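Our consortium's second objective concerns turning raw sequence data into structural hypotheses that experimental partners can test. To show how far this objective has progressed, the report includes one record in full. It was chosen at random from the queue rather than selected for favorable results. The single chain below, 201 residues long, was entered without modification.
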Amino acid sequence: MTSCTVNEQVVQNQISVNTNQTLATNQNTNVQNALTEIVKKEIDYLAHFKPQHREVLREWLKSKSYLRPAVEEVDSTYFENGKIISEEGLKFLRETVGENGHQFYSVADMNRDGKEDFAVLLFSSRKQDDVNYFALAIFNAPFKKGQQPSYFEENLRGISNSYIVFDKMIEKHLFLGKFESDFYCITYFPKGKTYYFEDCM
């Protein structure tokens, strides 16, 4: 057997190994993606909302098919495929938003009229250059059929470690922030029937 023949056989063996590795990687990726989709299909994205809030949001989102409510099990940086991946991170999350709070949903009297309003972060299926976008909507009470948000903002970036809280970071105001980052540090103030924001940076 000549050296050329030996080298050719080595090359062929290497190609075979690389091909098998690529196939295995692709299969693992496909399995991971499939598991993620299964988890998403099993999630009721409106389950954690109060009944009135759920109906108002469900009706409004019919005109925003690219948006859905963000949920911790799917969208939070502390979960993967519906499972907690950081107990320490989850503890920090609960300390930030409250033991019974939610990373992407806040309920309070945000415009100081004595009625309970709500704010929600919404995952967007629109992507650009691998950037995940999300939106913020604030709904003022009293709620009625066909209601529009009192404040709506799109094209916010990076939902997984973003959160909203009321009366924690800033007294009696809604706050949008990011865990372990100062990319978002925004406080919302009521103004008439809507809101405006101030960046704390």
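The partners drew two points from this record. The first strand starts at residue 67 and ends at 69. Residues 33-39 have pLDDT under 50 and may be disordered. Both points have been shared with the crystallography group to help prioritize constructs.
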